[in-house]
Amino acid sequence: MTVIRSIALALLLVTAAVPSARAASDADFKAAYAAAEAASKEAASLRNQWTTTVATLAAAKKAADGGDFDRAVAAAKEAEALAKASILQATSEKQAWKAMEIR
Amino acid sequence: MKRRGSVLIGSAFVALAALAFAAPRVVAADKIDPATEAKAFRNYFTAKFPKVKLDDFVNGPYSMNADMRKQWVEKEEFPPYEFAVDAGKEMFAKPFKNGKTYADCFPNGGVGIRQNYPHFDAKEGKVVTLELALNRCREANGEAPYSYVKDEMASLTAYMAFTSRGKPFDIRIPDDPRALEAYENGKRYFYTRRGQLNFSCASCHVQSPGERIRAEILAPALGILNAMPIYRSEWNGMGTISRRFVTCNSQTRAVPLEPQSDEYRDLEYFLSYVSNGLPIAGPGARP
To answer: Whole-model pTM above 0.90?
Structure first.
């Protein structure tokens, strides 16, 4: 009995330790895309949208439309990272541009 | 006791020094002086390229590279922009449906006035470029505006530039805080990095003129608008200032703004002002 319990416990531990390999779902995509879209909109409002953000967002949508949610989630996350980088650029350049000025 | 006293004095100095660093620096607000800035702008380029004559900066990459210059001089015998000048001349003279022409919208009938654009319109409180003025003329006379990035606008501005060749840029900044702000906004746009490649206009046209970027030789910012509009072999056609700004932004992987947006108008104001005194050389031809 104790042996069985130990095996069961070991199995549980192994299951918990192994990283989840489940495929991304439509819900995962929607959450990732919403976050990317929000960051992208913020970049656009700062007049500092990157072409790569727009293209990657479109790629995410296309992958999701084709049912490839793993690819769609990865692209959405990449788009969010690009948008956030463009926001950082716009924010830092509010002062940083002066360093380049001819005086 | 004596030792303790000197330790205390030492600590007080350290504390004062720390405070001095921690307190925000009080710096006199930067006063904008466009005339002094334009002089510094010009000096930067003349010092960087002492062999280039001042007026020659308007010839962009040809002022920087002897081989390209040789090809350009030969090309100028049958200039690729000639058809645009002819088309523009014809369009300029052709009456609108109401019988009026472009000449009715501009001082001196629109001839020999390119060097005065863009100008600051006190009524509107904004910069008005030549391209914008042309479309406003069309709309005021019941015609649909032209695209700012296509051939018709390039032809009209090519003709107007052609009639102004050799006239020095004469851009004014009136005593109006809004005009000064427009100039300052244009300057900030010029130096601000954007796009995934993290380039500003200045990255190419101030830091690297004369250098190659892929197969092209970068033009200096001084005089960069004097030869507009241009025939570009790369485009296989003519391009306006609007088209140039839009493609520059795209090349840095930045989403371009709308042609004739406030930012682009201010940028054109700044770039033209700092090239005051240099001759109009448009239309031009570039690789």
So the answer is: no
Residue of A57, A78, A100 best to disrupt the B interface, most CBs of B under 10 A: A100
Of residues B163, B135, B161, B162, the one with CA closest to residue B148: B135
Which CATH number is B246's domain given? 1.10.760.10
Tell me if chain A has a CB within 8 Å of the CB of B11: no
> Could you please report the per-residue DSSP string of B47-116?
HH-TTS-GGGGGGGGGGT-HHHHHHHHHHTTS-TTHHHHHHHHHHHHS--TTS--GGGGSGGGGTT-GGG
> What CA–CA distance (Å, rounded) separates B169 from B42?
14
Domain that holds residue B232: 78-213+228-287
Selection from B64, B104, B35 nearest residue B219 by Cα:
B64
Domain membership of residue B181 (yes or no) is: yes
**pLDDT tens across B43-76, in order?**
999 999 999 999 999 999 999 999 999 999 999 9
Give the residue from chain A lying closest to B40, CA to CA.
A103
ipTM for this prediction: 0.84
The shortest C-alpha distance from B263 to chain A (Å) reads 10
Domain count, chain B: 1
